[in-house]
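Purpose: get a first structural picture of the assembly so the mutagenesis plan has something to point at.
Setup: two entries, given in the order below. No constraints added.
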Amino acid sequence: MRNIVEVQNLCVKFGDFFAVKDVSFAVTYGEIFGFLGANGAGKTTTIRVICGLTHATSGEVIIAGEHFIKGKEDIIKANVGYMSQRFTLYNDLTIKENLDFAATTHNVSRKDLQRNKSDLFDLIQFNKKESSLVSELPSGIKQQVALVAALIHQPKLVVLDEPTAGVSPVSRAYFWELIRKLTKMNKTVFVTTHYMDEAENCDRIALMRSGELIAIGTVPELKNNTFSTQMYNITPKKPLINDDAESISRLCLLFEPYGIHYHVVLKHDADITSLEDKCYVEKVNPSLEDVFIKLVEGDR
Amino acid sequence: MILIGFIKKELIQTLRDPKLGVMVLVAPVLQILLFGFALTNDVVNIRLGAYIAPNDVIALDIYNAAIASKRFLPVDVSNTAPEKAIQQGIADAVLVAPPGGLTRAAGNCNGKMQVLVDASNVLRAVSIDGFIQNITQRTCHHLTASPLKIVVRTLYNPTLETTTFTVPGVMAMLLMTLVMILTSTSIAKEKESGTFETIIAAPIKRRHIILGKTIPFAIVGLFNVFVILISGRLLFHLPFKGNFLVFLLENMLFVTCAVLVGILMSTFVTNQQQSMLCSFIVIFVLIMLSGSFFPVENMPGWLRILAYINPMAHHTFLIRNILLKGGEPLYVTAHMFAIFATNVLIACLAFKRFKITLD
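Result (structure tokens, whole complex):
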């Protein structure tokens, strides 16, 4: 399988602080690659290097076979469509004016602009007037217009930095439908998100913590590798008092609240029947959120 | 308690931003310095030329007494016609003795000496008139039987209209303020809203962004030149004695300068608040050192050096020269070259500092 993104031993240092430390991974053509991590984990910095917005301190970034070196930035940038966290459109311009400007910055001809715009509007089933001011649009529509702007030059790689932050659950779900449609158009999607339910849609996921890559794989791989023993969902019969919680946590490798329930993974020598007098117990498969908590936040 | 909470929070926010903190400290110090030194109507450093024969004792006495008063600086105008010396900006005033000399005329009870004064700066012209009259009286009252008469000819603003001096200064100030703030704030706004990130993610060159930001605001600036000029002509009957194309070319140079200053300033700021504060400080310094309202000649030497590297000062000199004096070619060329050189310098600095990454 060919790689569209290859990151090798990437380091980004600000003063004495390593924002990204010796990170290596690859993204293959046509996949949805999720990039997860807590705030400050180094996701956005890595994305910025991939998009040519920040220089790497050391290491290599190869996009569509081109090394990110001086003089080749433009070739690489032409292959990348970037949508930042804040749907960076001009609020005081209309949809058409925003898209025209985005096309100009990528040197898209008028003919190609019309064709690409028409294809992308079909993709997102867009039915608003192009003469609408962006400031008058709801967040969900702004997000879709920002996606069209990021794709107007038909890039091979689409980099989405927390694209669903601040939009309604309905818009989030619809946006992920669009992301899946993009892969059918031979686009590779590199996406960061804080929503674990969304991340389950990714073909592969990389997890970052404190500037380092701590895990990479498909969702089942990550779950299996992180939890080799059975996970249980326990529901206390009565609200747990501190002593109860402490005695249960002593038996567990993982003991995390999950709504009114708890997700637990027992230590090898512990027996689940010992909890049954205080809790209702059922076997469950770990969610990606469990993986995230265990790997990314587990050491806190 | 609520009020204290608000006050505490605002102070912390203002002082925690290092750039804002510096501006808050720098602005008052600069203002005190410039107000103290530049804002003075005490007229000094008047360049005085003379058309006096070597044997014209009385006229030479007056000239020497003027120089000895320390308000006047001697300038050689022997190779230039008196009006030309003033038009070219070589002299602020020229003493012209009558044919045959003032000494002889005074002996014939017809002691009249002419003083040509550049009245494009009204306050300065009125003061020069007063000084010369005073010096003449003090120097010559014991020398001649009849009193000498000093005939003052005020050039370029014979009716001594104050607006003729101030309106060109206001034109320069408005143009610089408007264009510089528009440019700098526009770039700061892109940085603040995040659109700058999207722009630099595209295969775009630094020159595209700089020119893309320069040209539209230069057009806006040039449009404003016409608005301000027409307003000045209609409302204040501002004279226009120079060549329109020269005026246009000069304004194009100055508008480019204002845009470049705006771009350079934007490289030091990250948001619109910083941009506005920075503009306030820069504009204040540029105006104070431009001679728009307080003549550069009145400033102390070290401040005058700063004024002469201020492109707005050259623009103000030029606007006054073109509008009021018809634009003396040598003078216009020299000052336009000064603005051009400043533009090249600012463009190089702006280009060097303007980054198309987020590093």
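The longest helix of chain B spans residues 162-193.
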